[in-house]
Design a protein that fits this description.
By secondary structure, the chain is mostly helical. Helices cover 55% and strands 0% of the residues. It has two helices and no strands. The longest helix is centred in the first third of the chain and has 42 residues.
Length: 92
């Protein structure tokens, strides 16, 4: 029975290994908990410390736009269309 996996020596080694991994997991869990708590507290303090104020200006906002608009309409009429318009000026 010395070679069975449940012999006293192997079971003791498995138990010790299990204890080591449990301790490692507990240590990691504790570190993560403290890191999360610290970051949460810092985030809340940062959010509370910054304050943005928006107020209307005393003077009205003036926007000066210097725009020149030129429009040129160029039309060309065929000679027959031009003579038709001149003849039938009363319909237009």
């Amino acid at each position: 029975m010395m070679n069975s996996p449940f012999s006293r020596g192997k079971a003791k080694i498995m138990y010790q290994t299990s204890q080591l991994t449990d301790r490692a997991y507990d240590a990691i869990r504790d570190k993560m908990r403290s890191l999360t708590t610290t970051s949460l507290i810092l985030g809340v303090l940062t959010g509370l410390s910054a304050c943005v104020q928006v107020s209307a200006p005393d003077k009205p906002i003036v926007i000066n736009l210097n725009i020149n608009i030129k429009q040129e309409v160029v039309y060309r009429l065929d000679g027959d269309a031009k003579s038709l318009i001149n003849e039938e000026a009363d319909i237009f």
